[in-house]
Every structure is written in C-alpha cells, then in structure tokens.
Amino acid sequence: MRMEKGDLFLLSAVAVVIITLGIGFWFMKGREAPTPQATPIATSNPLFGLPGGDAGIKGSGASPAPRTPPAGQLEYHNVQYGFSLFYPQKLSVKRYDDRGATTLVFQSVDPPEGFQVFVVPYSGTTVSAQRFAMDEPSGERVNPRYGTIDGANVATFYSTSQTLGDTYEVWFIHGGYLYEVTTLKPLDTWLQSIMQTWQFI
C-alpha cells in the first residue's frame, strides 16, 4: 500500500509537532479510496498515452560516472533501487518500507519543503488505469508532459489529494520498478532541478 500523500507535506504547526515527536513528516499515500472519476489511460504515449509537451526533465542516458555534488548538496545513493540524485543538504532523508514498496522522504522544516520517492516493483511498460487509480485516488492528471530521465520515459503532471492539496508529480518505469516522485505544486520547479541530477546506477 502506498504511503498517503496527505501526511507528506503538512506545512503547519502540526507538521512541526509530528516531526518533533519522530513520527515523520509524511504520508501513507494511496489509502484514499479510488474514485470512479479515474479515467482510463491510453497507450499511445510511452508512459500514459496522453498528448503533452516537453516535461522539462532530460537526462543524458549515459552510464553514470563518479560524481561530486555541488556546494550545499549531498548525493543520495540507493543500490537496491538503482539510482542516485543530488539533494539540498538541509533536507533529512527517511525510509519507509511497506509490503514490498518503499517511500523515501526528503524533507526540511525550515523552510518547509521536501519531496518523496515512492518505488514499487512493476512488471508493466506503461502505467495501467488500475495502477494509476490505486496510487492516485483523485484520478487527476492535469497538464501532463513527457520527457526522459537518464533514458527512461517520464511523465510529469499536477494532481490533488484530499489531505495534501495540490501536488506536482514525476512518474517513470525503469528496471522492473515504478517510480513516483511527489512534491507540493508550488515546488514544481525546485523538484525539476533535483530530478535533473537523477542517474540510474
């Protein structure tokens, strides 16, 4: 079961209290009941099958070489899921495992910003309507755009959650896993800059 977005970015005093208590800053996305408004996903696009422009996230597709993070950033390296990325050093990183799926939470309280990477084993080459409804119960996929991350087809879009509000999401499939990266809508450009550093390893 995917960790719910609603606890992901609680940008209020409640979030500070929760973090202080060590419960975590985010979620359990996917516990909202799927809604009948979730629309079927076509298959003409590499990921979702919908028309769209450039996602604004491009990777070279080249094999990764040793990297040195820019000033003020750290490298997150995950051998299990085969990727690395650079992230602002002010963010803490926590991992939550739940029945085969993993959610990685990158978060900062001051300023309140962050993102999550949800990873689940996935044998398909496109995101099915059933999978989308399971992970995105609102059924919303607004302004979808397409591109690549280190050679993998990627879809970005805006969505919403009953508890979190407006979100910006980056979804892609690689190496038998579905990756869903989520942040708050106002942080879309910020997350794009982080995703530019993503490499498969």
Topology, element by element:
Elements: H1 13-20, E1 73-78, E2 83-88, E3 92-98, E4 101-108, E5 113-121, H2 129-135, E6 142-149, E7 152-161, E8 165-174, E9 177-184, H3 188-195, E10 199-200
Antiparallel strand pairs: 1-2, 2-10, 3-4, 4-5, 5-9, 6-7, 7-8, 8-9
3D architecture notes:
With 201 residues, the protein is mainly beta. It contains three helices and ten strands. The chain has helices spanning 13-20, 129-135, 188-195, and strands spanning 73-78, 83-88, 92-98, 101-108, 113-121, 142-149, 152-161, 165-174, 177-184, 199-200. A seven-stranded antiparallel beta sheet has the order 3-4-5-9-8-7-6, with helices on one face. Strands 1-2-10 form a three-stranded antiparallel beta sheet, with no helix packed on it. A hairpin with a 4-residue loop joins strand 4 and strand 5 (113-121).
Essential attributes:
10 strands, Protein Transport Mog1p, Chain A, mainly beta, seven-stranded antiparallel beta sheet, single chain
Task: Please tally the helical runs, counting DSSP H or I stretches of 4 or more residues.
Answer: 3
- Beta-strand content bin: 35-45%
N-to-C CA distance? 26 Å
The stretches of 5 or more residues where confidence is low (pLDDT under 50) are 5-44
CATH fold title? Protein Transport Mog1p, Chain A
CATH architecture: 3-Layer(aba) Sandwich
Report the principal-axis shape. Answer: globular
Give me the side-by-side strand order of the main sheet: 3-4-5-9-8-7-6
Query: Percent helix among the residues?
Result: 10-25%
Number of strand elements = 10
- Rg, rounded, reads 16 Å
CATH level 1 name:
Alpha Beta
Helix/sheet category: mainly beta
Biggest sheet, open or closed, and with what strands and sense?
A: 7 strands, antiparallel
Mean pLDDT: 77
